[in-house]
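Thought: the user wants the 3D structure for the chain below. I'll pass the sequence to the structure tool as-is, report back what it returns, then summarize two notable features.
Action: structure_tool
Action Input:
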Amino acid sequence: MATRQGGYAVSKKREVWKFPIGYADIQTLDLPFGARILHFDKQGEAEYGDQLWIWAEVDPKECCHEPHTFYLVGTGHPMRVGLTHVGTVLTSGGRLVWHLYEAA
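Observation:
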C-alpha cells in the first residue's frame, strides 16, 4: 500500500536503476521524485571511451520526476562551491580522473 509523503504517493518498494551521465561539464537529469544517488562509475566501453553512469535508489511507481543538476569536473579544473560530491571515477586507463558533484 502506498503512503502519502509531501503530497506524493510513496510505495514501500524501492529499486536501483542506472542513468547515463555524459562528459559535459553541466548536465541535468530528470530522476523519479525522491531518488537517492548511490554510486557513480563507468561501465562497459562506449564508442568514444568509457560510459559514465549513476545508480540511484528509486520508487519504481513514482510518476513524478524532478531535475537533478550534475557537474563533472576533471582533477585540477576549477569548480563551483556549495556542491555535493557524488563520486570519482578513472577513465582512459586511469589517465583521466573525473569527479561528479550534484547541485544542492
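Final Answer: Structure generated. The CA atoms of residues 14 and 59 lie 5 Å apart. The chain has one domain: 13-103.
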